[in-house]
Design a protein that fits this description.
Helix content is 54%, strand content 7%. By secondary structure, it is mainly alpha-helical. Helix 6 runs antiparallel to helix 7 and helix 15 runs antiparallel to helix 16. It starts with a helix and ends with a helix.
Amino acid sequence: MNIQKITIKTIIHSLLCIVLFSAASCKKILDLKPTDQLDETDVFLSAQKLESAVLGAYQGWYPEYLMRIGSVMADECRLGPRNSGVSASGQNLFRWTYSSADQEILAPWKNAYQVIDRVNRLLNGLDKVPLKNEGDKAKLKQLKGELLAIRAYEHFDLYRLYGASGPYRADAYAVPYMKSSSTSSQPSRSLTGAFFEAFWKDISEAESIMEDGSNIRMGLSAVYALHARAALYTERYPEAVLFAGKVIEKFPLASLSDFEGIWKEQNNAETIFKLKRNNVSSMRPGDLFYNIGAERILFAPALKLLDSYDHDEDVRYKSWFDTDPELITQGDLAETIIKYKGTENAPNRNDVKLFRTGEMYLIRAEAALHNGDVSHSESDLNILRLSLIHI
C-alpha cells in the first residue's frame, strides 16, 4: 500500500516537472524573435536597424510588373508558340481585352503602394532613431534621402502607367500621392499639378542630403536620373538637359565590348541604378518571357522590332535576341528574347536595370530639341548610335 502511494506520488511529481519544464521551454521558444524580419517597434532603435528596414523596402520592389505591361501591350512582343488559351499568361494584356480586375493590371498598383506604405512608415519614425555618433547622423541622412527617392520613383511610375495621358496638363487627374500610412484611408486622385508639387518636393529634399554609393541602392546620380526623366514628361526641358548631363558626366556609355556583359551580370557598365534579384525573389525579369517550370516561351520578339536592328552590326541585337534551333525543327519562328535569360544555375535571374546612361542621352537629345537646340540633339543621338554599332 505504501509502495503504491509512493509510486503514484512519484509519477505525479514527474509529470508536474515535465509540464513545468515544457512550459518554460515553450516560453523561451516563443520569446525568440525572428531573424528574417523586423518588428516595427524595433526598427527605430538604431540607425543599423533602420537600414535593415530600408533594405526590406528594396526587397519588396518589383518593377517587373510594370515592365510586363509595357512590353506586352506595346508592339515589342508576339505570343510564344505554346502560349495559347484564354487563360494563358498575358493573353488579356496582349489582346487589349483586360479589365480593371485583372491581376496583371492591378499588380503594379498594389506593389507600388505597398512599397510606398513601407517607406512612409519609416519616414514617419525617423525622429525616434537615437544618434550615437557622427557616423549614425550621416547614415540617417542618407537613408532619409533614399526613402524620399524611392517614394518619388514609385509615385512617378504610378503616374506614368495610370495617370499620364497625352501632353502634360496640370489640371488633369493623376494618382494619389501618399505621404502618410493609413490602412483605412481612401484617397482621391490628385490633380497633376498637386501631384508633381509633392513629387518635386521629395526630389529636391533627396538631392540636398544624398551622396552616391552602390548602384544597387538609390544614390544621388539615380535621383538626378529620375529628375531628368520626370522633367522631360512635365515639359521642364532645360532641367531635363541639365540633370541628364550631370549623370552623363559621371557614367560614361558602355563600350561595345562591355555592352553584352551588362545583361549577363558580368559588369556594371553605364548602370546607374539597378535592383538585385536572387533565386528567392518572387519574380524575376525573365519570368515575363519564359516559364521555367513548363519550359514554355510566353513571349517572343515582334518581327517588326527585330527588323529595326542591324543583325550583324548592332550590339543590342546579339545582347537581347537569339535563335533557337529546336523551334526551327518544330516549324516555329526561331527568335527568342535573351535579355533576361539569366544563367544555367539561375534561369531568368537578372538584376533589373532602372537607369542606364543610354536613356540619359535620349532624354537630353529630346529635351534639347524641344529647346530648339537641334545641333546638340543630333550630337547626342549620334554619340549613342555610334556606341552601339560595329564600324
